[in-house]
């Protein structure tokens, strides 16, 4: 290294020491400066580390390469390769009292002087040291020395030792190597293969060679120019890296014919490549006159399938310092840590930060990986954010069999938690649609059955010009109000809204009783008032005020209702028109809006958004004429579609408009579960074939699979096939032919193949006596059972003895 750029080495077993090598060897000690000040004479390596010089060794001039002894004792033994080919053992530690003190100063001398290019200690047998030399006529370029003996007469014949020094110096000189390899060639780099003590990989002049010391006469080699810097991946011993000028070659020793991957660097030649010892598949490279270290992450490299397939890698660059980098060294134990040295011996301690990979689990758990560490995001106990997440809601609903109740359809909103009023309205709407469709089918009422699932918008359009209004008396008041005569279509609308039961009876009494039982006093009073029964409304309010969970203020509202007068200029009407907007309950507000409105103008009721859509539609059906009702329904439908409000399914039905509304709902909430079950409930075939509907269904199936709800997904598929026979899934398991891979099941074998008869394939014409002997696709013979000798694929009904079971 004399006259060249410095190199740097971490101690293999002392993780706080490293050596800088150029014209001399300098040993440094690294210590943390996080909680302490920088000591005098120390060199700043980073914000939290500094280096202190411990010792300098200038006894080995003309250094070309250095290798640190891999064993624990002696702790600072280094092998130095010199320009004349000699290898000298030297030390930077206090090893004078060690039992290995005789090794210090020992020299290993080749026959002919030439430059030593590389050194490598054997990781399994720590006494073996391999040296790679330049070419010298017919001499060997790879010499393996045993540092504990002068020579091995059993392996290498003895020769006379020519020394110019005295007998004392002769004891420190070794001239006979343990092995000699690579005759008439030059060795530029070498490394031991960790999988075997006697396998050595050497970068010769024109090839990479694997020497087996058990048989030195033979070697395995591949011709290549990439023979410099050979190094083995410490986590994958069959993967080797080498370089030539600006290219890095990655080799697989199991397939040694050519590189599995070639990495093209910058036009400048490479000076060093090194695998990270703490990270699998991470290779660092350095080019000449550069301050950037390029990293190649081969952690996720797939095994190449074809000869021309190259695996993909992730490439990134790091800049440890501003100056040019002469060399670098990975820390042996600290993850992704390296130290770099510049040509002027400025050093920098640097850590390569890993990319942080985030991963959401299907059950909304968040985890991320950084290096060897895996972190999980744990929610606090008082954090209710997960309860609002739609994925969590859908998962809990799937566990409760949400959407699968096809008889009492309205119960699905209870399975969903009975928390969302829109879901409650949706499933009651679907329940009423199913109920009245079945009732019409039993009565054979023409084509009214499909009209129910088309929604109220279609029902209203079918009855335009058929309804007239008439005056009706109030119950409890001497007053008359114009109400539309209820046609068959308007009665159907009221039934779908839930105000009246199926049949010809238009009494809202049962509906009011159900609202009272559920504690919806204000809504029940409003519905009673809309049906011109003010006395019943006052009675309901009084019952609500006297109940345990009722509001005492309902008595005040009942009192205000009892003072109703029809005079337009009365003080009662003036005060109610002003103060009704201050009421918190929307139903109480619309009650007074109805009483104070002019005949035919009920905007205060129709456009109160907090009132349920079904109640507003039922009110419009009773008080608006055909033109007004049609205009109002169209406007309300468009509002529901834009907002993605599930209450609008009552208006759109399960039609294209319903799909548009559901699309807005899914875009707003992500609830593909409800969208899938809703569209399957009674949609026509053209709606079910809509791309959006199919997309929701497939995404929900994939979601169930991601949650590993295999049985739930199977139940959903069964539910889907019942409601949509065209979506029956194909068979996933069948008996296939060993030759052509086609199905040989009985259902397939009964289909003629290219117009030929069944008898040509060994299948008789009678299905009860069929017997399969060959594949219907390729006509190859089918295997037989080892016990009964029946051919595979024979129907069970044709097997002898099956009638006994």
TrEMBL record:
What is the annotated localization of this protein?
Lysosome membrane
- Protein's job: As a component of the GATOR2 complex, functions as an activator of the amino acid-sensing branch of the mTORC1 signaling pathway. The GATOR2 complex indirectly activates mTORC1 through the inhibition of the GATOR1 subcomplex. GATOR2 probably acts as an E3 ubiquitin-protein ligase toward GATOR1. In the presence of abundant amino acids, the GATOR2 complex mediates ubiquitination of the NPRL2 core component of the GATOR1 complex, leading to GATOR1 inactivation. In the absence of amino acids, GATOR2 is inhibited, activating the GATOR1 complex.
Self-association state and partner proteins as the record states: Component of the GATOR2 subcomplex, composed of MIOS, SEC13, SEH1L, WDR24 and WDR59. The GATOR2 complex interacts with CASTOR1 and CASTOR2; the interaction is negatively regulated by arginine. CASTOR1 and CASTOR2 convey leucine availability via direct interaction with MIOS. The GATOR2 complex interacts with SESN1, SESN2 and SESN3; the interaction is negatively regulated by amino acids.
Q: Which UniProt keywords apply?
A: Lysosome, Membrane, Metal-binding, Repeat, WD repeat, Zinc, Zinc-finger
This protein's name:
GATOR2 complex protein MIOS
Q: What organism does the UniProt record list as the source?
A: Chrysochloris asiatica
State the Gene3D superfamilies in the record: YVTN repeat-like/Quinoprotein amine dehydrogenase
Q: Which InterPro entries match?
A: MIOS/Sea4, MIOS_a-sol, WD40/YVTN_repeat-like_dom_sf, WD40_repeat_dom_sf, WD40_rpt, Zn_ribbon_mio
MIOS-like alpha-solenoid domain mapped to chain residues: 394-623
Name of the coding gene? MIOS
